[in-house]
Each structure stands twice: as C-alpha cells, then as structure tokens.
Design a protein that fits this description.
By secondary structure, the protein is mostly helical. Among the domains are: 45-229; 572-596 and 610-724, no CATH class. The termini are far apart. A two-stranded antiparallel ribbon has the order 1-2. It contains 33 helices and 2 strands. The longest helix has 58 residues, at 2-59. It has helices at residues 2-59, 69-82, 86-98, 103-111, 121-132, 138-150, 159-163, 165-170, 178-188, 196-209, 213-225, 246-256, 284-288, 303-308, 318-323, 341-350, 353-373, 379-399, 404-416, 423-430, 439-452, 456-485, 500-524, 529-542, 545-549, 559-566, 571-592, 608-627, 630-633, 644-649, 668-678, 692-703, 707-716; strands spanning 260-261, 273-274. Keywords: Centromere, Chromosome, Nucleus. One of its GO terms (biological process) is CENP-A containing chromatin assembly. InterPro entries: CENP-I. It comes from Scyliorhinus torazame.
C-alpha cells in the first residue's frame, strides 16, 4: 500500500512539473512574439524615416539652407548601427559631392557612408566626375578620397576606376590631396600606367617638397615597373602611407560583423532583418585579409578580356595555375594573396618585385592600424591579432623572404611591449630581419632589456630565435658564395642588398651579442641546465660556419660558457660541449689548407690566435675528462687550475680524478649503471674501472647515444690501437 501511494504521489509531481514547464514555454513564446512585433514595428519606422531622409536630400536644390539635421540624424543612426545598401550610398554620395548643400552637411553625409555589404563603382566614378567640375570644396574632396581608400576593398569592381587613372593623377598637384592621391594611385598602378611624363611630374614635385614618403613610395613602384624611366636612387624601405580613415574602418568592421542580411527589393534601402540568435565566430584574418578577386569585375569582362586574363576566383588547383601561368594577373589589393597558397606559389616563381612591394605596403598599413588598436585590454582582440601575425610568419617562411614592414613592427614591439604580449610571434619575426650596420643598436639593445628582466623560459626562447637568425644570415652568405663561384654576378651583394663584408660584420656582431648576454644570463640563473642547452645549440651553429656555410670565420666560446658546460651536472650539456669542440676541430683543420686569396673580398683570415685559443680549451677538456691533470695543466685565468697544496688541504680523496669520465658528476650515473651490469654482486666500486674495464666503459658510453663525447674522444685522443692518429 505504501509503495502504491508513493507511486501515485510521484506521478502527481511529474504531472505538476510538466504543467509548470508547459506554462513557461507558453510564456516564452508569447514574449518572443511581442519582441518580434516590436522589432518589426521598429524596422518599419526606421525604413520609413530613412526613405524620407533620402528623398529629402536627393530632391534638395542648390543653395538649400542647412536645415536637414533631423533627416541627417536618421541616416546617421541607421548607418552607424546597421550600414547602408549600395543604392543608398550611391544616392547620398552624389548629393554630398554635388555641393548642393552646405559644407557641414556634405561632411556629415560622407562620414555616415558606412556600407553594409559593397560599394558600387558607379558611385565612385560619379563622385570623381563631380571633382572635375570643381564644385565640391577641397576639404570635401580630401574626405571623399580618404573614404574611398577605406572602402577600396569593398568596391564591386575597379575596371572603370582604372580607366580614370590619368584624371586621378591630375590631382597629385594639390598639396592637400597629394598624399591620398598617391596612395590611391599606388593601389591602382599597373605597368601600362607608368609613363615618362608621370615620372617627370613626380620628380618635379619631389624637388619642390622634398623626400615625402607618399611620393617616394609611388616612385619606387614606378621604378620597379619601368626602371628605365626612374634614374633616381630611392630608399629600399620607404615609410608606409598614412592611415586614411581609421574611424570608418572601425565602424565598418563593427557593422559588417553584426551579422545582418541584405534585403532584396527596390523599396528596402537598408537591411533591417536580424540573423537568428546563433552567431558564428569570425576570425580576425578573415576580416583583415581581403577576398581574392580579379581586378575587373567578372560580370563586366568582355570575351577578349576573359581570354587574356584568368579570373582569380576560379583558381583552385595547382594544375590550373600551371595551365594559366601566363594569364594570371595580381589582384588590386595584394593582401588577398595571403589567403591563396597558389598565388604565393606564383609570387615565389615570377619574383615580381612590384608584387612584393605592394604586399609589403599593405601589411605595413594593416599592422599600423591593428597594432594601435590591440593594446592588451581585449583578450579576444589579442588572440585574433596573434593569428594574423602567424599568417604573416607562415607567408615569410613560404616565400623565404622578409618584409621590411615587419622589421619596423618588431622594432616598435621590442621598444614598447613586455615579454608576454605576442612574444612568440615577435621573436619569430625577429629571425627575418636583414643584416645591417645598426642592427645591434636598433633591435638588440631593446631586446637585451627584455631579456634580462624576463623569465628563464623567455631567455631560452630569445637564444633560440637568435640561433635561427644566425642560420638565416649564414645561409644568405653561402648563397652569395655559390653565386660567385658560378660567376652569376659580379657584384658582391647578399640577397638582402647588403655587401658581403657587411653581412660578415653583422654575423660577427650577432655572435658577440649572443655571447655577452648568455654569460650574464648563466650567472643570473645559477647556470641552469636548460638555458645552457640552448646556448650550446647556438654554438653548434657557430662552430660549423666554414664547412657548412662557407664562411671562414672562427669565434670560440668564452671561458664563461666553456667551463660551466665542462663542469655541468647534466650529461646532455657535457655531450653537447664535446660535439661543439669536435666541430671546431674539423673546421680549423679544413681552414689550415684554405687559400687565403679566396677571402680577400671580405677581409677574413684565420690567424694563429684562434688556433691557440682552441688548443687551450681542448687541453683543459682532455686533462679534465681523460688524463686527470685538469688542476695542474689548466692555466686559463678563468679555468679550474688550483695549486697542489690547496687541493691537499681540501682532504678530498683522489681529487686528481674528480672530473674524469668515470667520476664526472654528469657521467657518474652511467658509471654506476656500468658497474651494476658488469659486477651484479655489487662488490666493485668506481675505482675498479681501469685497464680493460676502462675500455669497456668507454664503449658503454658510446652505446648510450653520447655521440658528441664519442666524436670528441676518437678525434682528439691518441691511442695505441689507432695508428692513423
């Protein structure tokens, strides 16, 4: 009976809960209906007010008094929240550029032209035609060109705009318009646009105004397309253009990320219908990087043009790239190539300097804007910016080419940021900087401040980045030497337009800088084994510069690095040091037979001092690990030489053999394991490893993958069984 009553009670509760849930669902549906009605009513009101405002301004006649504030506020409210459709933008831009209204209203109209999707090209061409009538004031013209630069990637087509290149170039004579016109021309310039009279005009302007960044940038692009027209010496790394309209950019990004759909129909002048509540995450690089598209719009291409160029939208496979190799034309906005590995293959093959220069300027503009916005306050913004930097890093690695704008970004980041903000990406970009005479003062001095005030893990990352930078510089040197041997070029220039001797000087400064900070860091971190591992990795590259990279330069590790590694508690570090010394030996042996006349062009000559330094370090290592005379024969000022009477006073038994391969702290574990395997009874001690047991123990060490120790012992020690030594 009790069970039956409990079952009925439970069933009653279930019924009550079901009724309660059903009531909640009904209330939720009713609330949703009320919100939908309110939205619909708001949508209808906004649509009506927008139509009235557009009709007011389009019907306004010349010299109309500036009494359209209410209508303008209605347009601004909708534009800044949800954006305007192309038809509305075309109508309002025509009103603003016709100068029928007061300048104050024209300026506000231009500022509220926020596209919800795209911008019609006809609106831009009509606006330029209004500029030709001289009706809009110069301030309105400047504001229009700045707006055009901001929405350049959103233009539906650029074919008609390209045909107006000559008209646009005419406005370069105006001092206020000149910086923005140069930027616009830079985006539109093709090889056929470069004419001798245009180059002459730019040179005349430069002679009057000086080396302005916008003029230099456009001249540099002209020189790449037609070097026979530009005989001036221009800087290799011109400054980027000014940010044309960061206000518009932020608003457009906000509007187009809100997720509104376009409404179709002639009466619906703005999209006012919201998407469902489920929002899709959009990544920063998808917003920053333009969509790959052909310069002219596909719908406007004629048959002959379709036959001469291949639409980039249809380039999806590598076979298409090979079949249409001669028909591919770079997009108007070079930043879009970051989305296409196929276009990166194309850039890498054709080696078009103008394409790399345009891509460099686009990256400079984007980094300048995004770096200013990304101040660390927004975690999501920082993640998106990090992803964008990763795309740049992958592009540089793919092209095997560094961008000058990234060098400027690294310099700015090292000066103003800490070791946490994008540190991995900044150090990765650091490995692509070009060698120069002022690289130490520009990059390494601020890096040193971060290095000494950061954690040990950041120190290890910095040493690893400097190792990668050294490898890249040495690779450039080996390429130069190979080209000289094949007589490909008579000019001793590196791939980064640096003289060969200048490259060697930069390499020497890099090694000296890394050595200096490594010694101090080891003292600060109590000779940490992890840090020592990364430092010895660096010296593995330094020790093999001649045989691997054809650079006859020998820079030996200082005592502040050699002795901590020799007396390390870790067998990994000791094995690394032995391998480094072995590589030094092989390179010095090869340098003995080197003809010094081959290195006259870089002024290198390995003198006797380098051999003496190596012999001193080698003698210290051999006497420590093998001959048990380390305390007697080590005469280095920073070595471990100790007088005999002081050693006796320590009362350490058998102090002479304290650092042999048997008693060395880094190898003692191997020695104990060897004894346990050879004499399982456990009656033998370490001193039992001598005679034949010593040889067995050496073979045992070789089997423990201590290859560095093996190469060192076999190459440096004279044994009775190896007569060839």
């Amino acid at each position: 009976a009790n069970g039956w009553l409990e079952a009925r009670a439970s069933a009653g509760l279930n019924v009550l809960s079901f009724c309660f849930v059903g009531e909640m669902e009904r209330e939720a549906r009713a609330s949703a209906k009320l919100k939908a009605k309110a939205r619909s009513r708001s949508t209808s009101d906004d649509l009506q007010s927008l139509q009235q405002a557009v009709e007011y301004f389009t019907a306004a006649k010349e010299r109309t008094p500036s009494n359209g504030n209410l209508h303008l506020e209605a347009i601004e409210g909708i534009a800044f929240e949800k954006g305007l459709l192309p038809d509305v933008i075309e109508l309002l831009l025509d009103v603003a550029m016709s100068a029928r209204l007061a300048d104050r209203l024209n300026t506000r109209l231009l500022k509220c032209l926020i596209p919800a999707s795209t911008v019609p090209e006809s609106a831009v061409t009509n606006a330029i035609s209004w500029m030709c009538t001289r009706k809009p004031t110069i301030n309105v013209q400047v504001l229009f060109i700045r707006w055009l630069l901001t929405v350049f990637d959103l233009l539906e087509s650029k074919k008609q705009l390209n045909s107006l290149y000559g008209i646009i170039f005419f406005y370069i004579q105006n001092a206020k318009l000149c910086p923005y016109i140069c930027h616009l021309l830079y985006l539109l310039t093709k090889k056929e646009n470069v004419k001798r009279f245009r180059v002459k005009k730019l040179i005349d302007l430069q002679s009057k105004t000086g080396m302005q960044p916008h003029l230099v940038a456009l001249l540099l692009l002209y020189k790449i397309h037609a070097p026979e027209y530009v005989s001036l010496t221009l800087p290799g790394k011109p400054k980027s253009f000014q940010v044309p309209g960061s206000f518009w950019k932020k608003v457009i990004e906000k509007v187009q990320n809100n997720g509104y759909r376009q409404l179709t129909g002639n009466l619906e002048l703005v999209n006012l219908t919201e998407l469902p509540t489920r929002k899709r995450k959009r990544k920063m690089h998808r917003e920053l990087i333009p969509v790959v598209s052909t310069t002219p719009h596909l719908a406007e291409l004629s048959c002959s043009l379709m036959q001469s160029t291949f639409p980039l939208e249809q380039l999806t496979t590598f076979s298409q790239l090979l079949q249409n190799f001669d028909r591919i034309e770079f997009p108007a906005q070079m930043g879009s190539v970051l989305r296409s590995p196929l276009l990166l293959h194309y850039i890498n093959w054709v080696k078009d300097d103008s394409a790399l220069l345009r891509l460099d300027f686009w990256l400079a503009q984007t980094l300048q804007e995004e770096f200013a916005d990304c101040n660390g306050d927004s975690l999501q913004k920082e993640k998106e910016f990090v992803e964008f930097l990763n795309i740049i890093i992958r592009t540089q690695e793919f092209l095997q080419e560094g961008f000058s704008c990234c060098e400027d970004f690294v310099l700015k980041s090292l000066s103003f940021c800490d070791s946490l903000w994008c540190s991995t990406q900044i150090l990765a970009l650091l490995t692509r900087i070009s060698p120069s005479s002022d690289v130490i003062s520009l990059y390494f001095d601020p890096l040193m401040k971060l290095f000494f005030t950061s954690s040990i893990y950041f120190k290890c990352t910095v040493i690893e980045s400097l190792t990668n930078l050294l490898v890249k510089w040495l690779t450039w040197h080996s390429v130069c030497v190979a080209e000289m041997d094949r007589d490909i070029t008579n000019v001793l220039q590196s791939p980064q337009n640096v003289s060969l001797s200048g490259l060697v000087n930069s390499i020497s400064e890099l090694v000296e800088f890394t050595t200096r900070i490594s010694m101090v860091a080891l003292q600060m971190e109590a000779y940490n084994s992890l840090l020592l591992h990364f430092i010895l990795n660096f010296y593995e590259t330094v020790s093999d510069m001649y045989l691997k990279y054809s650079l006859p330069l020998v820079i030996l590790p200082p005592a502040g690095i050699f002795y901590p590694a020799l007396l390390s508690l870790e067998s990994v570090n000791l094995n690394q040091l032995c391998y480094v010394m072995y590589k030094y030996r092989t390179n010095l042996t090869a340098l003995k037979s080197l003809d010094s006349s081959k290195n006259v062009h870089i002024g290198l000559r390995v003198n006797r001092k380098a051999f003496q330094q190596y012999n001193t370090l080698m003698k210290a290592a051999v006497s420590c690990l093998w001959t048990s005379r380390n305390f007697e024969q080590d005469i280095h000022p920073m070595g471990i030489g100790i007088e005999h009477n002081l050693l006796v006073q320590t009362r350490v038994p058998d102090f002479v053999s304290s650092f042999t391969i048997v008693n060395h702290p880094a190898l003692m574990g191997h020695a104990i394991n060897f004894i346990q395997k050879q004499w399982p009874s456990g009656k033998k001690q370490l001193h039992a490893i001598q005679g034949n047991a010593w040889n067995w123990y050496v073979e045992y060490l070789y089997d423990q993958e201590l290859d560095g120790l093996k190469h060192f012992l076999e190459s440096c020690l004279h044994t009775a069984s190896s007569s060839e030594h």
